[in-house]
Amino acid sequence: MSELKVNKVSPKTGTAITLGDSGDTFTVPSGAALAIASGATLTTSNATMTGFTIPSGQTLTIASGATLANSGTATGFAAGGPAKGTTPSSVYRTNAKVQNENITVSDHSTTFTATNATNVLNVGTDDDFANDNNVRLTTSGSDLPNGWAIDTDYYVIGATSSTMQLAATVGGAAVTIADDGSGTHTVFEVINAMASGPITIKTGNSLTIPSGSRVVII
């Protein structure tokens, strides 16, 4: 038999059906559709899915206790913060508070140069950074000023309209750097702006993500 045509397949006993054996392949031809009815669940166990697309308007839900992992070659993932060469405008961190002010994400990042003699970031213009802001750093290369690191929380001290220093704790002493580094460096604010769970924007306030901006949720 090379073709089987039926309207419904049901298990002879029990409630489970097994299709084929290990190593077999079942193909849904181009133009055909495999529809999962509303309320149904498609479950995989240590399986690999390739070429999987979430259609516009649809939602991929990762259940509590599950993990969405990067195999090491995928892009668009962030593990605890941005990688070298990326320039996110902001990071949203869990276990914080409800967003209760209007924020334009791109207003909270800027490029900078460093002056190691005074442990200073030179931001050039007033970018609304203030003392005690929680910030992180990125670089276009691998040479941040020696003493600072990516994926590390710092806190602004000594903020002026064009310069600031970084401390390891709120109100702490400036972290000492040994050189000015090289490449293009960016400082961005880590906005503690959400309760554990969904991002919550307080009624009447807004979060604006301008075109070209990048937000990391961790």
Explain this structure to me?
With 218 residues, this protein is mainly β. It has a domain at 90-217. The protein has no helices and 10 strands. The chain has strands at 90-92, 103-104, 109-115, 120-122, 134-139, 154-157, 163-167, 185-191, 207-208, 215-217. The strands form 2 sheets. Strands 3-4-7-6-5-8 form a 6-stranded antiparallel barrel. The protein has a two-stranded parallel sheet with strand order 2-9. A hairpin with a 4-residue loop joins strand 3 (109-115) and strand 4 (120-122). The radius of gyration is 25 Å and the shape is elongated. Mean pLDDT is 73; it is low at 77-89.
Explain briefly what this protein structure is.
By secondary structure, the chain is mainly β. Helices cover 0% and strands 19% of the residues. It has a six-stranded antiparallel beta barrel with strand order 3-4-7-6-5-8. Strands 2-9 form a two-stranded parallel sheet.
Mean pLDDT: 73
Lateral strand order in the biggest sheet = 3-4-7-6-5-8
What does the radius of gyration come to?
25 Å
Strand content: 15-25%
The DSSP helix count reads 0
Molecular shape: elongated
Keywords:
218 residues, mainly beta, six-stranded antiparallel barrel, two-stranded parallel ribbon, 19% strand, elongated
SSE blueprint:
Elements: E1 90-92, E2 103-104, E3 109-115, E4 120-122, E5 134-139, E6 154-157, E7 163-167, E8 185-191, E9 207-208, E10 215-217
Parallel strand pairs: 1-8, 1-10, 2-9
Antiparallel strand pairs: 3-4, 3-8, 4-7, 5-6, 5-8, 6-7
